[in-house]
Design goal:
The structure is a single chain. By secondary structure, the protein is an alpha+beta fold. The protein has a seven-stranded mixed beta sheet. Helix 3 links the parallel strand 4 and strand 5.
C-alpha cells in the first residue's frame, strides 16, 4: 500500500466516500454549515489529504484554536476503516510533525469508535476525561490531549 500525503484543499472533501458517522454529521449540520466548516479547516489549519491508489482516504489536520492550542480534526472515507492500521504509521508521523508548533493539542472523539481512539493514542494523545452530552445529538465524547 502506498499512501501519499498532500496538502489539503477544499475540493478533496468532495472525493471522500464518507463512513456512516461522517454521513450522520453532515446530515445533522446541514450542507451549508458543513461547507463552512470545510472552508474553516482549509484556511485556518495545518491540513493534509491522504491518498491511496488515487482515492482520498482521509483529510485531517490541526486547527489553531489560539496561540499554542490546536484541535485535531479528521474526516475519513469508508476506505479508512479497512486500512487504518496499515496507514497509521504515515498518519502518525504526519500528525506528530503538525503537533510541534503547539503546547497543547486536543481531540474530542465520540465514544463507541475504538479505531478513532486507537489512532488518537497512536499519535500521542492521552485520555483526559469524558465530555457528557457533548455531541450534536447529545452523545458522550472522550477528550484526548497532549501537552508539550
Amino acid at each position: 500500500m502506498t499512501l501519499r500525503i498532500i496538502p489539503f484543499e477544499e475540493i478533496h472533501m468532495d472525493f471522500i466516500r464518507p463512513r456512516e458517522y461522517e454521513k450522520d454529521m453532515i446530515e445533522f449540520m446541514g450542507i451549508e454549515r458543513y461547507q463552512n466548516m470545510v472552508k474553516l479547516y482549509a484556511c485556518n489549519s495545518k491540513a493534509f489529504t491522504a491518498i491511496n491508489n488515487g482515492e482520498v482516504v482521509c483529510c485531517g489536520g490541526v486547527l489553531k484554536v489560539w496561540d499554542r492550542v490546536g484541535e485535531v480534526w479528521i474526516f475519513c472515507s469508508e476506505l479508512m476503516d479497512d486500512n487504518i492500521f496499515s496507514m497509521s504509521r504515515q498518519l502518525i508521523k504526519h500528525f506528530r510533525e503538525e503537533f510541534d508548533e503547539f503546547d497543547r493539542v486536543q481531540a474530542a472523539i465520540k465514544l463507541g469508535f475504538p479505531k478513532a481512539i486507537r489512532l488518537a493514542e497512536c499519535v500521542g494523545l492521552e485520555y483526559e476525561g469524558t465530555l457528557r452530552k457533548f455531541g450534536p445529538d447529545g452523545s458522550d465524547y472522550a477528550m484526548y490531549g497532549r501537552i508539550k
